[in-house]
Design goal:
A hairpin with a 7-residue loop joins strand 3 and strand 4. Helix 4 runs antiparallel to helix 5, helix 5 crosses helix 8 and helix 6 crosses helix 7. The mean pLDDT is 83. The strands form 2 sheets. Strands 1, 2, 3, 4, 5 and 6 form a 6-stranded antiparallel beta sheet that branches. This protein is of the alpha+beta class. It folds into 2 domains: 129 residues, Jelly Rolls; 76 residues, Orthogonal Bundle (Arc Repressor Mutant, subunit A). 45% of the residues lie in helices and 26% in strands. The protein is elongated.
């Protein structure tokens, strides 16, 4: 069964050269010609859309691909912009025709990729709804909820490792205001800070959002 781990090994064999992007460097821009898919080896990538005032729609992490939605839409251009975030990003670039061949040669990989794309579409749809209809405090709470893994949504407490910078980008507000919200919700026992982690009282958070 082809996992992303085995695909990473295949990519290493076929594409030895890696492309490094420094912090805040553009990987591709919305509207650029679609030339291929990027596999993230190291670092995080901020994904934005100009239609949403360049608020971060999501962050792509190591072992993830960027450019998938444009590829599967048979688009000639990328539909999002991507920027290296944090400590810089190492990627493997896979030309469009090569990626098509990978999907044909590894059916289980293709199935996994389609599931990833479906999850990403659902996540993005929720993000867009939140951005349109909610104030900053509501967006912050829902951003945290969206960051909780599917396998953890029924737990009482969960831990997320997103930084203040990332929460600021995803919520669409300043880092100072995010720090203020974190302090406020600490007092309300909704969350606590442990190092670079946020411990979320998920039961109370869901209750507050539903009200």
């Amino acid at each position: 069964m082809e996992s992303l781990v085995s695909i990473e090994r295949i990519l290493k064999d076929k594409y030895e050269s890696k492309t490094y992007f420094s912090v805040n460097e553009s990987i591709f821009n919305e509207g650029d010609e679609l030339t291929g898919i990027y596999f993230i080896k190291k670092g995080k990538v901020k994904v934005t859309r100009s239609a949403k005032n360049k608020i971060a729609m999501w962050f792509a992490n190591p072992m993830e691909f960027i450019g998938l939605s444009s590829f599967f839409n048979d688009s000639e251009n990328y539909s999002f912009s991507t920027i290296a975030f944090g400590g810089g990003v190492d990627t493997v670039f896979i030309p469009t025709n090569d990626f098509k061949k990978l999907l044909n040669d590894y059916p289980t990989f293709k199935k996994d990729i389609i599931q990833i794309l479906c999850d990403r579409i659902n996540y993005t749809r929720n993000r867009i709804c939140n951005i349109k209809s909610q104030n900053i405090k509501e967006r912050f709470l829902n951003t945290i909820l969206l960051l909780v893994g599917k396998e953890e949504v029924n737990k009482t407490k969960v831990k997320i490792s997103f930084s203040v910078d990332e929460l600021s980008e995803l919520t669409g507000t300043s880092k100072q205001y995010i720090k203020k919200l974190i302090t406020e919700f600490q007092r309300k026992k909704l969350l606590e800070i442990k190092g670079d982690k946020l411990i979320i009282n998920l039961t109370e958070l869901k209750s507050l959002i539903s009200n």
